[in-house]
Amino acid sequence: MQSNPTTLFRERRGHDRVHDAIYLQVIPQGGEELALSQLANVNAPDRKVSLSASGILFADRGLHQPGTQLTLGIVLYPSKQSIVCQAKIISAGDAKTVANGELPTYRASFVDLSQSQTQVLVDHVDALILSLSFAA
């Protein structure tokens, strides 16, 4: 399978990474249950990210320090599958591929994903790679 080198990357942990449009919400502490119900009503992506089953590069209005752990609500398209998960900010300001104007960019690693959450992300990335291979 031929891949587009600007879209597909192989991560050190063995997961493929793709540029994608998703809905992403940074959830305040304790708001996980409410966020999950709100994610069901989201109809469109709100930002471009770089995504794999082990982490995400994204731009956000909030200021997050490296080492900070966040709760993220993610809706994947076109499947509209959603997950709420923990992610640790690895670095800030160096994710130029997802820059959005003046918003700060972040590189985050997913923390303690369940097997089913990991599988949702792997399946999503694989489906995007497959669709890109047909488009090429």
Question: What does it look like?
Answer:
- The chain has a single domain, classed as Beta Barrel (Thrombin, subunit H).
- It contains two helices and seven strands; from the N terminus they run E-E-H-E-E-E-E-E-H.
- With 136 residues, it is α+β, with helices and mostly antiparallel strands.
- A hairpin with a 5-residue loop joins strand 1 and strand 2.
- The longest helix is centred in the last third of the chain and has 21 residues.
Concise account of the structure shown:
The protein has two helices and seven strands. The chain is of the alpha+beta class. It has a single domain (8-135), classed as Thrombin, subunit H, CATH 2.40.10.
Topology:
Layout: E1 8-10, E2 16-27, H1 32-39, E3 47-51, E4 55-59, E5 69-75, E6 82-92, E7 105-111, H2 115-135
Antiparallel strand pairs: 1-2, 2-3, 2-5, 3-4, 4-7, 5-6, 6-7
Total number of helices = 2
- Using only CA atoms, what is the Rg? 14 Å
CA-to-CA gap between the ends?
10 Å
- The CATH topology comes to Thrombin, subunit H
User: How would a crystallographer describe the biggest sheet?
Assistant: 6 strands, antiparallel, barrel
| Largest sheet: spatial strand order | 2-3-4-7-6-5
The general outline is globular
Pairing-aware structural class of the strands and helices? alpha+beta
What is the CATH class? Mainly Beta
CATH superfamily grouping = predicted glycosyltransferase like domains
Mean pLDDT: 85
- Integer tally of domains: 1
Q: What is the CATH architecture assignment?
A: Beta Barrel
Question: Which key features would you list for this structure?
Answer:
single chain; 136 residues; alpha+beta; Thrombin, subunit H; 21% helix; disordered N terminus
